[in-house]
Amino acid sequence: AARPLAVVERDVQGAGVRRASRVLADRDALRIVQALHRADDVPGCGSAATTYRDVEGNAFYCSDGDFMAYDDASLLPDLVKNLGKEAVAIVLAHEFGHAVQFRAGESNQPTILKEQQADCFAGVWARNATSTGLVKNITQADIADGLNAASVIGDDRIQQAAGQQVRPENFTHGTSEQRQRWFSTGYSTGDRKSVV
After folding, report:
1. Contact present, 101 and 117 (Cβ < 8 Å)
2. 68 in the Ramachandran plot: left (φ > 0), alpha (ψ -120 to 50) or beta?
3. Residue 21 half-sphere exposure, CB side, CA atoms within 13 Å?
4. Is the pLDDT of residue 1 over 70?
5. Which stretches does DSSP call E strand in the chain?
6. CB-based contacts of 27: which residues, under 8 Å, 6+ apart?
7. Could you tell me which residue, 55 or 125, shows the higher pLDDT?
8. What does pTM read for this prediction?
9. CA 157 from chain center: how many Å?
10. Which pLDDT score, from 0 to 100, does residue 18 have?
11. Where are the strands (E) in 10-58, listed by range?
């Protein structure tokens, strides 16, 4: 079986994404930048220079440069180790969701809504990746693992794990329940129109 990252990259670069999102039908493929080492070049995002430190332990979509960057050296192994291989696909599909938002002109909204919409787009991607055969043999256990990953990266769980009091006013992505709900909505419908 293909590694989740390879599946996401192949889908982002190929026709599968254009079929799944319908937003990218007439657009160029999304550029993906891997930051493998501290010396790797990362394109600038807007007027600011982007360095490995901006990517270290993270993944993000840059609308100014229309690229997705991720840290292959620490983020992906940490996700697999701590949350399972499904977490890699969900995190990268979430970032791809931001590319869909930008290209569809839907990125001008409050941060938390934008992040939950990207979670829903990640679910739409997962559903279409399975229905088109891009990902084979996905099981309910795989979906449960993916939902668990979405739960672990909810703002409430992150604050609790850091020993902090849960403060909704500081949320950027939403609660564990919200992240699971919006991924599930996208996955269950497979339809971009179901996205918040």
Report:
1. yes
2. beta
3. 30
4. no
5. 31-35, 59-62, 67-71
6. 103
7. 125
8. 0.76
9. 18
10. 38
11. 31-35
pLDDT at 5: 43
The pLDDT, as a whole number, for residue 194 is 65
Asked if residues 57 and 71 have their Cβ atoms less than 8 Å apart, the reply is: yes
Crossing angle between the packed helical segments 85-103 and 75-83, to the nearest 10 degrees? 120
Q: Is the dihedral of CA 96, 125, 107, 99 positive or negative?
A: positive
What is the phi/psi pair of residue 15, to 5°?
-70, -20
Give the Cα separation of 77 and 80 in Å (integer): 5
For residues 167 and 131, the answer to whether their CB atoms sit within 8 Å is: no
How many residues can be counted in the chain? 196
- Scan for tokens 């600038």, then name that residue: 44
Percent of the chain with pLDDT strictly greater than 90: 3
Which residues touch 64 (CB under 8 Å, ≥6 apart)? Answer: 45, 46
C-alpha 84/C-alpha 86 separation (Å) is 5
